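A.,

Following up on our hallway conversation. Structure tokens first:
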């Protein structure tokens, strides 16, 4: 090695390697994305991130990472020649060359440290950008068109979507980078160090045959045999690592549910059932861990044996040439090092088998998640047209997922100020009818016209309270406005005691009683002023006096609102002009409500 020209030579080497690498990498990615399942999965998940029409930055970052990876290979090559020079100087007891080598080392080491730090920063920054994009993309798909709700109806249900969005995305981006750059590093190192090894190795006589440059062939044969064994031993790890993720997520979900339903479980003293459910899920994890350990023992055992043999193997082969003074100590040490590098590079593919197994499992989980969302979006639903200040149902038929008829050919026409109470025995389909109207239920035929989602409010029996302040919960699903009148609304809903706590951040669904939560939901009606409101037993936890006051409050504040309620109590009758009775098996009856107090000022009943 001519150290005077090392800088120029290295720059030329890196430039050439960079151009060749970029061309080869692009071709390989295109071929994989076309012809392999996981290549297609990769494309489906993240092609758009790299599209230059969206942004040129990701490809530029990636090019920077390729450059730094090649830079690191070049540094290894330089270090290898440096060690040859050093050992040769020691062997010759040449102090002058030794001190020159020390100076060269300090330059190489400085460049190496700076490169390593820049490399770390660039890789991490790239991973963050990639993860942000992918997470936003998956969250958006999950929340669009109510996919998060509709996926429960598709055949390929997804377990633990939360884990897929949080953990699998992170694993996917970091493994993609680690594996792809690992491949590049290994292939380029393989070429560089095979070349060095070629220069250092001599002929070897075996079984009477003289093999020239034997060392190079031997290292390849050695690793090839080791790889064949490793693939056989390691294959089951792929399925096991998929199951590990699934079992862990299932266990975590069960734990989260105990926290979520803490009070109900505590009232029932349900600890025994919970304990056995948790133990059963945890035993799946443990069983899987043992299976992984037993497989890994064989796998790692093989890897350890292979890498230990590789330490002495090149020394044994070169020893006769060293002792017959054909090569220097420096050559001997560089051979060992180059052999190690070639062996490491080739072994990358073998050792990465485990990582690749995990990577494929992650891709299966992420694309399974997309499959489920796509299938959910294909599900049918009622035809909903948005029209202001009206609620019309035309020939609506609602069934259960098992095709049992709940409501058949229903027709309704409710103008402003109209009010309808839906009644029927438990399980007859009242809530499902409202789901159909909201567009959530796929097993529906017919047409619906109603105001758009901004002017339509559905209040379930148990209101959903988001994390955050009480003010946020009161405005949900709208964002908090300034000067919002929240205190006034709380007062009207007989929740004055909560006014001082409006901006307290707490888990309000655990603090407020169900009746208070239901009144908070009535507060939402007052704040968001919808044109139509659907109340599904939304006052069931209030006493009759409070319920009466709340219905009166809605009517007084929003005289024009179309009100559709589901309820069992006869006391609700006075607020509703019409009654829809569901009888099951699709049968229903629509008629005027007896005892309705607003009869005089109500509009004429639609026929
Ligand atoms: N996701 C689902 N998958 C399968 N069946 C369902 C699903 N949701 C509801 N059902 C079934 O549809 C039928 C109607 O349920 P729905 O909740 O609409 O009844 P409901 O009249 O509102 O009852 P309640 O008065 O008890 O609230 C029930 O038999 C129920 O078991």
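Then the amino acids I'd put at each of the 607 positions:
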């Amino acid at each position: 090695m001519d150290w005077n020209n090392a800088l120029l030579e290295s720059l030329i080497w890196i430039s050439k390697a960079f151009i060749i690498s970029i061309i080869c990498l692009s071709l390989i990615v295109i071929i994989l994305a076309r012809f392999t399942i996981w290549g297609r999965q990769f494309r489906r998940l993240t092609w758009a991130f790299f599209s230059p029409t969206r942004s040129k930055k990701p490809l530029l970052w990636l090019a920077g990472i390729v450059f730094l990876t090649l830079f690191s290979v070049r540094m290894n090559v330089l270090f290898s020649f440096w060690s040859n020079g050093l050992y040769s100087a020691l062997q010759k007891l040449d102090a002058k060359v030794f001190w020159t080598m020390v100076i060269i080392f300090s330059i190489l080491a400085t460049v190496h440290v700076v490169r390593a730090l820049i490399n770390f920063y660039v890789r991490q920054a790239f991973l963050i950008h990639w993860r942000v994009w992918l997470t936003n993309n998956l969250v958006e798909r999950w929340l669009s068109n109510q996919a998060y709700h509709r996926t429960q109806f598709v055949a390929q249900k997804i377990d633990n979507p939360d884990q897929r969005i949080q953990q699998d995305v992170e694993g996917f981006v970091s493994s993609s980078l680690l594996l792809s750059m690992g491949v590049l590093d290994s292939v380029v190192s393989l070429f560089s160090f095979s070349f060095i090894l070629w220069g250092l190795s001599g002929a070897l006589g075996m079984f009477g045959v003289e093999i020239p440059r034997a060392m190079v062939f031997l290292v390849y044969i050695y690793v090839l045999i080791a790889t064949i064994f490793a693939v056989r031993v390691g294959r089951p790890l792929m399925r096991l690592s998929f199951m590990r993720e699934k079992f862990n997520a299932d266990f975590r979900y069960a734990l989260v549910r105990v926290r979520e339903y803490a009070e109900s479980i505590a009232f029932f003293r349900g600890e025994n059932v919970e304990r056995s459910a948790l133990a059963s899920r945890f035993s799946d994890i443990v069983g899987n861990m043992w299976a992984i350990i037993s497989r890994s023992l064989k796998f790692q055992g093989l890897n350890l044996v292979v890498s230990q043999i590789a330490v002495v193997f090149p020394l044994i082969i070169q020893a006769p040439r060293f002792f017959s003074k054909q090569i220097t100590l420096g050559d001997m040490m560089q051979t060992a090092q180059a052999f190690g590098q070639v062996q490491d590079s080739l072994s990358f593919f073998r050792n990465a088998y485990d990582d690749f197994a995990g990577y494929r499992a992650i891709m299966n989980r992420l694309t399974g998640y997309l499959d489920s969302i796509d299938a959910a979006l294909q599900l049918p639903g009622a035809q909903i047209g948005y029209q202001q200040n009206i609620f019309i149902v035309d020939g609506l038929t609602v069934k259960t997922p098992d095709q049992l008829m709940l409501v058949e050919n229903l027709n309704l026409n409710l103008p402003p100020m109209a009010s309808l109470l839906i009644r029927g025995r438990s399980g007859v389909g009242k809530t499902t009818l409202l789901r159909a109207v909201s567009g959530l239920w796929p097993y529906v035929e017919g047409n619906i016209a109603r105001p758009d989602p901004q002017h339509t409010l559905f209040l379930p029996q148990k209101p959903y309270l988001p994390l955050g302040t009480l003010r946020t919960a009161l405005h949900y699903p709208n964002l908090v406005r300034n000067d919002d009148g929240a205190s006034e609304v709380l007062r009207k809903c007989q929740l004055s005691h909560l006014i001082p706590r409006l901006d307290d951040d707490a888990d309000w669904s655990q603090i407020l009683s169900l009746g208070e939560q239901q009144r908070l939901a009535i507060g939402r009606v007052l704040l968001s002023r919808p044109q139509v409101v659907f109340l599904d037993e939304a006052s069931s936890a209030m006493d009759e006096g409070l319920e009466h006051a709340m219905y009166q409050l809605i009517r007084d504040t929003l005289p024009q609102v179309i009100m559709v309620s589901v309820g069992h109590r006869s006391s609700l009758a006075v607020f509703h002009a019409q009654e829809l009775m569901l009888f099951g098996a699709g049968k229903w009856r629509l008629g005027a409500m007896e005892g309705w107090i607003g009869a005089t000022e109500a509009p004429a009943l639609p026929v």
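Residues 599-607 have pLDDT under 50 and may be disordered. Curious whether your intuition agrees with the design.

B.
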